[in-house]
């Protein structure tokens, strides 16, 4: 184990369990329909990967019952339940690992940050006699979907520092690639970079294992791309962008996060946006991220059903897993697209498109037939040599049922 963290780890590590706090989970839909909160990507890593890296220990999950089979929980006689929206840092980790048994750590806003207990059944519905401790330090909690991209640049820097503290970058050997502030660029083994511009003057650039950056691509840090991802020829990638593993990205993108296995392979603009996994944006798809009157962007709330003020001038598209957009699709400022949506057609699309919807603003929407949606999802996954198993099908089936009331109002979108 690296000496950097040996001073904060206990001899007998508790079982680390990342839990979904119900209100935060609802605020982070549609991404948390298909994953625990801690599997949200922000920076180079997901939140769960950050905890694994800090603790040098595996983690498990306490999540929704229909998600639990795919994200098992590991209960022992010493359990440290950590809020899955909480991003680790050195002081926070030190505090959590020294938390006494049968105690709860709160923020000064009365948010539960962590619970350490020998109970095998702790959850929010169970009142346990726990000692209350208030955490006085600062921390980052991802509370809203837009905080995924607003926090992304800082989290790229934090993850980058962890990586470079213990490892050295592979060299960039291509003579036609131009690097600015090269010491702030980290390249994993197997990466292939040709005639690109990598500018790390304003923040680090991380290039994952076996990733490809094609000729003419221009990238500004902070930036991260995961294993096996591809940046296409002449792509323009602006700062504070993270591309998860096995994505394909082209055109112009800035201030955005792609969780993984998603494609924006062609020209078109994506800004201040978040895409889940297995998404695809057709050629010349664009989103607006600034209103013409320069007022704050409002976003669909899964809690109220209405619009919520983000407090942001720049805010773009949020798209759940398995959703797709046809060529030349236009998304308005602050658009939320659910899980397994197929959207296409002329004109700006609605600000909220419920999960398992099919159609477009001009053509109208209908419910995406479940068996058809499932077949497309299976094919999408299998194309990447990933197994789409029975559990994935059960998750989509549950989401289809849960979101039906939203689709019942589809003619009013």
Task: Report on this structure.
The longest helix has 15 residues, at 152-166. It contains 9 helices and 37 strands. A 9-stranded parallel beta sheet has the order 10-13-16-19-22-25-30-33-35, covered by helices on one side. The chain has a 6-stranded mixed beta sheet with strand order 2-1-3-6-5-7, covered by helices on one side. The chain folds into 2 domains: 3-143, Spore Coat Polysaccharide Biosynthesis Protein SpsA, Chain A, CATH 3.90.550.10; 148-412, Hexapeptide repeat proteins (UDP N-Acetylglucosamine Acyltransferase, domain 1), CATH 2.160.10. By secondary structure, the chain is an alpha/beta fold. The radius of gyration is 21 Å and the shape is globular. The model is unreliable at 1-10 (pLDDT under 50). Helices cover 18% and strands 27% of the residues.
In a few lines, what is going on in this structure?
The chain is an alpha/beta fold and 413 residues long. The N and C termini lie far apart (54 Å).
Low-confidence stretches: 1-10
Q: What structural category characterises the helix and strand content?
A: alpha/beta
Q: Ends: how far apart?
A: 54 Å
Form type: globular
- Binned strand content: 25-35%
Helix content: 10-25%
CATH fold-level name of the largest domain: UDP N-Acetylglucosamine Acyltransferase, domain 1
CATH superfamily of the largest domain: Hexapeptide repeat proteins
Radius of gyration: 21 Å
Question: Please, how many domains?
Answer: 2
Corresponding CATH architecture of the largest domain: 3 Solenoid
| Quantity of strands, as a count | 37
What is the CATH domain class of the largest domain? Answer: Mainly Beta
Note the total helix count. 9
Strand order of the largest sheet: 10-13-16-19-22-25-30-33-35
Oligomer: single chain
């Amino acid at each position: 184990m690296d000496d950097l963290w040996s001073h904060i780890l206990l001899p007998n590590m508790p079982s680390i369990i990342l839990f979904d706090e119900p209100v935060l989970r609802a605020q982070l839909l549609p991404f948390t329909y298909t994953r625990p909160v801690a599997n949200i990507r922000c920076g180079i890593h997901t939140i769960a990967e950050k905890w694994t890296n800090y603790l040098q220990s595996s983690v498990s999950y306490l999540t929704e019952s229909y998600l639990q089979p795919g994200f098992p929980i590991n209960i022992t006689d010493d359990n440290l339940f950590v809020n899955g929206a909480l991003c680790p840092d050195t002081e926070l980790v030190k505090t959590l690992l020294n938390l006494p048994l049968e105690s709860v750590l709160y923020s000064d806003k009365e948010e539960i940050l962590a619970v350490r207990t020998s109970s095998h059944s702790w959850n929010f519905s169970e009142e346990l006699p726990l000692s209350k401790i208030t955490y006085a330090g600062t921390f980052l909690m991802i509370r809203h979907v837009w905080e995924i991209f607003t926090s992304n640049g800082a989290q790229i820097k934090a993850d980058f520092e962890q990586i470079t503290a213990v490892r050295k970058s592979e060299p960039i050997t291509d003579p036609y690639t131009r690097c600015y502030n090269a010491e702030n660029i980290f390249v994993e083994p197997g990466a292939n970079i040709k005639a690109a511009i990598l500018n790390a003057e304003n923040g680090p650039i991380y290039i994952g294992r076996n990733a490809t950056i094609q000729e003419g691509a221009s990238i500004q840090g902070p930036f991260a791309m995961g294993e096996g991802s591809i940046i296409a020829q002449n792509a323009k990638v602006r700062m504070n962008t993270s591309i998860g593993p096995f994505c394909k990205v082209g055109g112009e993108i800035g201030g955005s996060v792609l969780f993984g296995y998603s494609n924006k392979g062609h020209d078109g603009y994506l800004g201040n946006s978040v895409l889940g996994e297995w998404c695809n944006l057709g050629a010349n798809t664009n989103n607006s991220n600034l209103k013409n009157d320069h007022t704050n962007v409002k976003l669909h709330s899964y809690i109220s059903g209405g619009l919520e003020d983000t407090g942001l001038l720049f805010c773009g598209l949020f798209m759940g897993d398995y959703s797709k957009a046809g060529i030349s699709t236009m998304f308005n400022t602050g658009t939320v697209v659910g899980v397994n949506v197929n959207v296409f057609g002329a004109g700006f699309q609605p600000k909220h498109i419920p999960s398992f919807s099919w159609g477009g603003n001009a053509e109208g929407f209908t419910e995406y037939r479940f068996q058809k949606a499932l077949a497309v999802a299976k094919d999408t996954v299998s194309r990447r040599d990933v197994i789409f198993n029975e559990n994935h099908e059960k998750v989509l089936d549950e989401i289809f049922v849960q979101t039906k009331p939203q689709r019942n109002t589809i003619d009013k979108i």
